Amino acid sequence: MPGHKGGRMNPELPEYYGRLCMSLDVNSMKPLDNLGHPVGVIRDAQALAAEAFGADHAFFMVNGTTSAVQTMIWTTCGRGEKIIMPRNVHRSAINALVINGAIPVYVNPGRNARLGIPLGMGVEDVQRAIEQHPDAKAILVNNPTYYGVCSDLETIVSIAHAAGMKVLADEAHGTHFYFSDRLPVSGMAAGCDMAAVSLHKTGGSLTQSSILLSRNTVNPDYVRQMITLTQSTSANYLLLSSLDLARRHLHFHGREVYEKTIAFAEYAREEINRLGGYYAFGPEICNGDTCFAFDLTKLSVHTRDIGQAGIEVYDLLRDDYGIQIEFGDVGNILAIISAGDRRMDVERLISALAEIKRLHRKDPVGLFDHEYIDPDVAMTPEAAFVAQKETVPLRASLGRVAGEFVMSYPPGIPILAPGERVTPDILEHIEFTKAKGCFMTGPLDMALNNLQVVVS
Amino acid sequence: MELWYTDKHTEDVRFSVKVKRQLASHKSEIQQIDILDTCGFGRVLVLDGELMITEKDEFIYHEMLTHVPMAVHPNVETVLVVGGGDGGTVRELAKYPSIREIDLVEADKEVVTLSSIHLPFTACKLRDPRVRLHFEDGLRFVRGKKDAYDLIIVDCPDPYGPAEGLFTREFYGNCCNALKEDGILINQHESPFYAAHQTSVKNAHAHIAIEFPVSTVYQCHIPSYPSGHWLFGFASLKYDPVRDLDAARWNALGIAARYYNTDLHRGAFALPNYVKELLNR
Hints:
The complex is a heterodimer of chains A (about 450) and B (about 280). Chain A has helices spanning about 10-15, 20-25, 40-55, 65-75, 90-100, 125-130, 155-160, 185-190, 200, 220-230, 235-275, 310-320, 345-360, 380-385, 425-435; strands at about 55-60, 80-85, 105, 110, 115-120, 140, 150, 165-170, 195, 210-215, 280, 295, 300, 325-330, 330-335, 390-395, 405-410, 440, 450-455. Chain A has about 450 residues and is α+β, with helices and mostly antiparallel strands. A 7-stranded mixed beta sheet of chain A has the order 1-10-9-8-6-2-3, sandwiched between helices. Chain B has 2 domains: about 5-55, Spermidine synthase, tetramerisation domain (Spermidine Synthase, Chain: A, domain 2), CATH 2.30.140.10; about 60-280, 3-Layer(aba) Sandwich (Rossmann fold). In chain B, about 30% of the residues lie in helices and about 30% in strands. The interface of A and B includes residues 321, 355, 358 and 359 of A.
C-alpha cells in the first residue's frame, strides 16, 4: 500500500507531484513505524519534537490542530464534566464538547472597544469561574487568539493548578512562541499540562499537520489512546516528515526565522499607521489583564475608520491587487507574515492599502462595530446538537435555542453555538457578515436562509 | 579560448555575445551584478544573469524613455526616475534646462557605484546638482508622495525578481497619486513578441489603464533585447501623446539625439496589429 505503488498506477500522479513526493507516500511498513503505536522512527522523531518544544511528550497529528484540541479536551474532561473556556474558542473546541458531552463554562473574554475584537480571559474572571465551578476539570486558554492577544497564562496556570484543574493551551497560532524571547510565553514554558500547536500555520510544516504537546502531569499513553479514537490509521508520511523537517528547521534556525518575521511585521505596522486612516495595532493594546501580551508577528489592521469593513478590504486586496491575506472580519483584516515573505510582498501590501484608502474611503457610519456577543447559553452543546430540531427561517429563529453552529470562516469562532439562544444582536451580526460577503459555515442550510433550532 | 555571455531571451531562444573581459562581478544584498566588455556591443550591464543595457544600443532605450514625454508635456520641472541606477535616463533628462529636480530611486546602491566606475557613458550625469539619489525600494518611496512630479519614468528590469513590485496595480496607483494633475507616467513595458512575455505586457497595460484616463503604448527597436521589438507605456491624466506633441517647441530646444526625432515620435505610437490584439484594442 498505497495502491498507486509509487505513482505507477497513474502516470499523472508523478508527473504532477514529482517522483520524490510519490516515493514519500507510503504506508503500513514495519520500518516506517505506526503513528497509532509508535515504537521506532516516529517515536524517535516525537522525542526530538518534545525536546525542541520543552515538553515531556510530543504527538504528531495528521488530522489538523482540530484533532489536537479535541484530544486535549477528551483526555481531561468526560461526559457531564465541566471545562472552563473563553467563548471565543475555535469551533474545534466546542465540537469536542458536542461529541463527548462535557459542559462548557464560558468566561467572557475582555473586549477592545475601539477595535471591536474579543481579547483574552481576565485573571479575576477565571478565578471567579474556578470558585463557582470547583468541580471543573480543566481550563482551555487561547495562546494567542487569532488576533495575537494572550491572557496572563502563567497566573492562570498557577490558580488552576492550585484548584486541581488542568490547563490546556490552544496554540493554533502560537508555534513561534517556542522560539523567541520577544514573544509571549509558550504553553509549555508557562506550565500548561497540554498544548495544541499548529505547526503548519506559522511553523512551516504542511497543511493539516500539527503537534500535541504534554507534560508528565497527564498520562501519555492515555493521550495516545484518545488520539487513536478518531485519528486516521493511514497517517500520511508527507505530513509526518514535514513535521520532522519543520521541527529541525525551527530547532536550528527558529530564532532568526522569527526575528525576521517580527521585523517584517513591525515595519509593516509602522508604515501602515503612517498612511493614516488605518490602525495596525500592536503591543500598545495590552492592558495588563485581558490583553496581557501581544504576538508581535501578527499584522492585524483595523479598517473601519476608512469606512470599509475588514472583509471588504480583504476582497479588494485579492480581486484588485492579487494579494491574498488570511482573513477579514467586520472591522479588521489579518495578514499572516512569515519568514517566507519577501520584502517586496510586504511593500506591496502596504502600497495596496494606500491605494484602497485613496480610492475607496467612505464615511464609517453604519458599519457594524463589534465582533463579539456574550452568549446566552440555554443547553450544553451536545444536548442541543442531539435534541429534536426543526428548521425555521433565519429571522424566525429569534428567541429559540440554536441546534447548530454559525460562524464565518476564517476565523472559525462561532457566532452561535449549539445550545445558545438566538438574540437580536446575534441575528444582526449574522446578517451583516453575510451581506458583507463573509464565508459563512456551520448550518445545514449552506445558504444560511434557515436555521436549525431545538424543538421546545 | 573564446568566452561568450548568453542572455536567455526565452526558455528556447538565446542571445550570445563574445566577451573580451569581465570588468566587475559583485553580489549585492539584492542581486548579482556583472559588467562585461564585449565584442560588438561594448560594455554590458548584467543583473542576475539578465542583460540590462549595452553600450552599443542603450541610447535607443534611454532616448525613447525620456524624449517622448518631454516633447508632449509643456513644462516638466520635477521628475522621478524609479530604477535606472546605470544613469542613462538621468543623462537624457539632464539635457533639459527646464528640469529643476530629478529624484532617482534605485533599490541597489551597488548598481550606481559600479556603473559610475565602469559605465561612464550612462553614469556621467549622476552628479548633476539637480539629481538626488535615493537608495530605497521604489514602491515605498512613491507611496509617500502626492502631487509631487510632472513626470515619472519607471526604468526597471523585468517584472520578475526584485522589480516585480514595480509592475503592480498598487504601484501604478501610487504613481498616479504622486503625479501632478497633468503628469505623465512612462514605464518600460517588455516585448510583445514572445508568448512568455505577453502576459506581463497585458497585465502591466491593464493595470495602468485602470488608473489613468490616457494610456497607450509605443514601440522602438532595441537589437540586444528579446526579439528587438520593445514597448513602453505612456500614461497621463491629461495629455495625449500624439495630439499634444509640440514638435516645434521640442525641436527649438536643439537637443542632440541619435534615435529620437519628432517624426519618429508620431510613428512610434502606430502599433502593429498583433500588438493591438494583445492589448485588446
